[in-house]
Amino acid sequence: MNENSRLHTHSNIRNTFFSEIGIGISGNSFLLLFHIIKFFRGHRPRLTDLPIGLLSLIHLLMLLVAAVIATDIFISWRGWNDIICKFLVYLYRSLRGLSLCTTSMLSVLQAIILSPRSYCLAKFKRKSSHNISCAIIFLSVLYMSISSHLLISITATPNLTMNDFLYVSQSCSLLPLSYLMQSIYSTLLVLREVFLIGLMVLSTSYMVALLYMHRKQAQNLQGTSLSLKASAEQRATQTILMLMTFFVLMSIFDSIVSCSRTMFLDDPTSYSIHIFVMHIYATVSPFVFISTEKHIVNILRG
After folding, report:
1. Nearest-CA neighbor of 97 among 56, 141, 48, 130?
2. Dihedral sign for Cα atoms in the order 176, 177, 183, 187
3. Residue 293 DSSP label
4. Which residues of this chain are annotated as glycosylation sites?
5. What does pTM read for this prediction?
6. Domain range holding 226?
7. How many domains does the chain have?
């Protein structure tokens, strides 16, 4: 029997994981509810409200699906068939892809918002909400098509033990792919990661440069209105910068743990670390956004 199937005996790992999932679901639910109430009350929406609300919804759904899959990892039973396995795993991977796409587009959108009127990026401010929505849809469809191989390779775990199967949960396993298919899939996945994370790095570098210029200009002119404007822009941008940095670090850590898991297929420790690391960003990000919302902070302080 694969050693990963014994994870249900590790109570500390189980409790830690479900605590992480519970905190993440609570945070994303609160953030999503805040944006829904804000919309129905007629508050003027900011350009970043749509992607932030969408990101909280994606993370909420992803964590809920992860909680369902986790019951098949940490609770000793095997009751899922091929259809349930394919649906849950494909849905989960698609939501992870949506999270990456939306995070990347949020970084680009903040860079557009921060751009002065004289810059070429400022031309996209009026249509940025529409353009970002179209970009997210396009990238999401593209990623879901890349992950479509899971509809074939994910299967219910056979009764006979086979070392070639990669453990997903007690009921579900990943069929080994041919060298050609694995190479194609890995190449497409790497291209997607490089492209989207590259957008984050470029937009982040652009925002850092603009913030530095704003600060220098404010110091030279000693203007109150400019200082206040720069301060407001700094708060919004620093939140995005912090999330982008955190996301990139977690992506790198995730890749390292994933590679170590591939090298040591029967190591339950690497698998437990992997499933914990995969959800850190989705758990932490809503609280970062909540901490920057003045209305929420004032209510909590009051």
Report:
1. 141
2. negative
3. -
4. 159
5. 0.84
6. 3-301
7. 1
